[in-house]
Amino acid sequence: MATKELASCKQCRRRKVKCDRTGHCCGACSRLRLNCSFGNNKLTSVDDREPASHVTEAGIKRLRARNACQQCRSQKARCSGTGPCERCQARGENCELITENPLSSGQQPCTINNHNSASLEITYSAGVADVNVLLLDRSAVKQYIEAYFDNIDPISCVFLHRAKVLSDWSRGKIYDDLTVLICALGLLHNGHSQQHRDVSRCWVRAVQSRIMAHVERQTLDQLQNIVLLVQYHFLISNIPETWNLISLAARLAFTLRLNYEHHGIEPAKQESQRRLLWAIYQLDRMLSGGVEDLAVCPVERMHIRLPCDDHSFHRDIPSRAPRLNDYEHSDALSVGILAYHIRLNATRDRILRYTKRIRREGSAPSLTKPTLQVLEQELKTFLEHLPDDLKLTSDQLLLMSHTKDAQAYNMLHIHWLQCHCDLYRFLIPGIRESVDSHAFRNTPTEYVDYCQKACLESALRLCDLWTAIAQLEFQKPVNDVFFAISIYQVTQIINHLCQLLPQNGPHCLQNVKASLYGALDLAKPLRKMYPRVESCLKDIGHLLQVLGQNAGDMQKPTNRGPQPNLHHLPSLHSLIPEYSEQNGVVIDLPALGISPRTVAAPEPLQAMSTQPPHTLPVIPQLSDHIVRPYLQSGECDSLNFVEQTEFEPANIFDMQFNGYYDPVQNDLISAFVV
């Protein structure tokens, strides 16, 4: 009878190697110093407490890491795969560990950067492409928290108290999700590289999954996390998620009754709650674009004070800030520049609601002249109540150029001037925001001239302001996505009203074009923070190439077909996503780097900004030009409106009058016009 052959030891079976089955320990286990199942000898020196990811299935310590860091890859050296790896630690090098998830080939790899002593490691569990563990030392966490408070734009309404956050974090009293979100925003503000975006996106994805899994929680901490999520998605140009999360934040804020003053709590906490709601309001007004159907934060239900000055907030001093529309009891020392931005946003929202209502109804704008005059007066009142240190003069612009409020100061006056353009542009034929041809024909010539001249004057004053900002060489002149949109709007206005420009002087076509090229250069750095502005900047470059070439055709009122999205009436490059009636889906084209208008063969932006070569013109003193009144207060009242009866016949092939006008394709379109 044949003898039965001994089975292989367990270790060799796991390793799938041949076992010699000799003695109490096979040769393979003896060589690798493993515990062979044939005997009880303890030969292994492998630590039983070694993490499972660091050993093989047979219990042998892994000699190679699953993913090597960038430095070890370049040198073709063995990497431990930890963050930082053993080789980089021994050499004192910065370890850049690239952690890839093999089960999610369609996603971008998550990049981890080791800054000095910061040890960042991201692992995946159960094959799920998500972050489970974040290992940061305390110095790195503090660095990211401080970066958040140092670099965040004050216009975004900082509602977290810096000293309290750092104090609670040092004592372990702050929630982990809030810490991770602050660190993600701090990392994003501290650097705009793709590496920073990938790391912060990994952190935020894990926190957002936990928040959405417990969306039933109705607490102040939950609301803070959601608002930080909204701000993060807005910064990375993820507008669809921003849209959906802002409505959740607004509903929760009103559920917690943050729209009312809460007495009996410390001033800093009370102010933090006010700013939390105002942060939601600011984002809501930016997203809704004057469309009441899209607004989720009704301003008439906000019975709280405006944000107070930062000094009072940081020192836990009770707020003396007024209400939103209370100009009589305003104290310049009790509010900061953030409060004036909120007031101006409220005015801009009313302007957009008014102009879009006129466009929907199809009525002549002259019939609502009293409403336009009220909005004019509102803008004038806003300027009159600005404190002296926030008014726009050449000297004040110079003083503010290197302060922490420089960007907020610049954007305040850009917004104010843009509000005037938004108020008058509905009578500029050829742009998307104009009224239809029927309403235009029924508007008296005097009223058309008044609105066009006022709109052009505002656009020219914006050009002068941008030129002055460029000449002062601000360290960070503007960091707002609205800046690029404003340049596009002004370029459109000047392109359609260039026949009203003087032949010579500071506002001739050549000088204005140079100013717009300078503004385009100022806006280029926005691409690092806001990827969605790429398509907007490309369209600006295309418009500048053909600026003033079709001046004779721009003033022809033509019949246009039904406007797309008649209910929302979004402007090009606005934050309102485009809705497809056929497919029933919302597509955010700018987030994909695609212009809402079809642009043929776009050239590289770098080439556009240098063709033709330009020099910035010297502008007049700001105190004499930019801040002077628009028109005399009684000028609009004295207009004798008569019904317009004679107009040039409409040309249905004139694409310049509707929202699809493309200057790049102008020659192609002209070939079909008889």
UniProtKB/TrEMBL annotation:
Gene Ontology cellular-component annotations: nucleus
Single GO MF descriptor: DNA binding
Classification via SUPFAM superfamilies: Zn2/Cys6 DNA-binding domain (SSF57701)
InterPro entries to which the protein is assigned, alphabetical: TF_fung, XnlR_reg_dom, Zn2-C6_fun-type_DNA-bd_sf, Zn2Cys6_DnaBD
Primary localisation category: nucleus
SMART domains the record matches: Fungal_trans, GAL4
Gene Ontology BP, a term: DNA-templated transcription
UniProt keyword list: Metal-binding, Nucleus, Transcription, Transcription regulation
Signal sequence residues: none
Compartment list: Nucleus
Domain Zn(2)-C6 fungal-type stretches: 8-38, 68-97
Protein name as it appears in the record: Zn(2)-C6 fungal-type domain-containing protein
Organism: Truncatella angustata
